[in-house]
Structures are given as structure tokens and as C-alpha cells.
Write a structure and sequence with these properties.
Alpha-D-Glucose-1,6-Bisphosphate, Chain A, domain 4; 8-stranded mixed sheet; 42% strand; alpha+beta; 160 residues; 2 helices
Length: 160
């Protein structure tokens, strides 16, 4: 089932989740991997694809598949400071926004992901309290753990 939300959700609640991971790699290396958005399906479980139009690299087209439900959206980068932050918001489709932050720890890097998404009114609160919030947070943490593995393998395979 393909769901493409074209209009703004009225009376929506924004649910936010934050997770983080420490990656034993230099921040510039970690940044270079994450900022290549089209590679994101390699570590983000539910992300099927990310396309960045060459004529407008501030935009990206996303497709998410949760194993039965598909969502699409287009995002715009609001803030991008190398080795520090990428902040975005959706401009159509699935309403979402968030930021990925990078913290230098000399011999390692902290990667913190915050994602917020809109769900209509009370339904969203009930779903989030029952299961949705735990599922999303667990998935995000799993994706960051997979990113750490991806980064460490990429670092081991790169010429020093």
C-alpha cells in the first residue's frame, strides 16, 4: 500500500525521538559518510531510497517501506554545517523534520539523530504510547548501530 500525504495534517501532534551512537572514527570521516544521503539505505532499515537531484542538492526525495506500508516525501535541508549538523524538514508527503548532529571526541565521534513526525491528534498519542514510539526509537537506534558498523568497515577498507 502506497501512502503519499499531499496535504498538511490538520490538528497533528509532532512526536519526536532522539538516539545516539559513538563511532570510533574521526568526525570528518563520519560526516563524509552520513552526508552522502543517497547511501542512507545501507544503514537505515526502513529507508528504501534517497535521491538527490543534481540540479538542487538541498532537496532530496525519500521512500520509506515498513514492510507493508510505503511513504514518500521530499525534504529540504534547512541547515548544513560540515562536521556539526544537517537539519531538514519535509516539504511534501510524509510530514517530518529533524537533525543529525556530530560531536568530535578526538578519537571518536558521537552521532545524534533526532526525528519528529506528525500524526493526527489523539490517534497519534495513543499509537505512540502503545507501540509506535518504541518501534520507531528501536529502529532508529538499530540504524545508528548499523551506521557505526558501516563506518568502521569503510574506515578499515580505506587507504590510510
Amino acid at each position: 500500500m502506497l501512502i503519499n500525504l499531499k496535504s498538511k495534517i490538520s490538528m497533528a501532534d509532532w512526536l519526536e525521538h532522539s538516539v545516539q551512537v559513538e563511532v570510533e572514527a574521526p568526525i570528518d570521516f563520519v560526516w563524509s559518510l552520513w552526508s552522502d544521503l543517497e547511501q542512507m539505505p545501507r544503514w537505515m532499515k526502513w529507508i528504501d531510497s534517497v535521491k538527490v537531484p543534481p540540479e538542487n542538492p538541498e532537496l532530496s526525495i525519500w521512500k520509506l517501506n515498513t514492510g507493508g506500508l510505503e511513504f514518500t516525501w521530499q525534504s529540504r535541508i534547512l541547515k548544513k554545517i560540515p562536521n556539526q549538523i544537517i537539519q531538514w524538514e519535509s516539504i511534501d508527503g510524509l510530514p517530518n523534520r529533524g537533525a543529525i548532529r556530530f560531536y568530535d571526541r578526538k578519537d571518536s565521534s558521537i552521532v545524534k539523530l533526532s526525528v519528529a513526525y506528525a500524526i493526527p491528534g489523539i490517534l497519534g498519542k495513543i499509537m505512540d504510547n502503545l507501540f509506535l514510539g518504541r518501534a520507531v526509537e528501536s529502529n532508529l537506534q538499530g540504524s545508528l548501530d548499523k551506521f557505526r558498523e558501516y563506518a568502521l568497515q569503510a574506515q578499515a577498507n580505506s587507504p590510510h
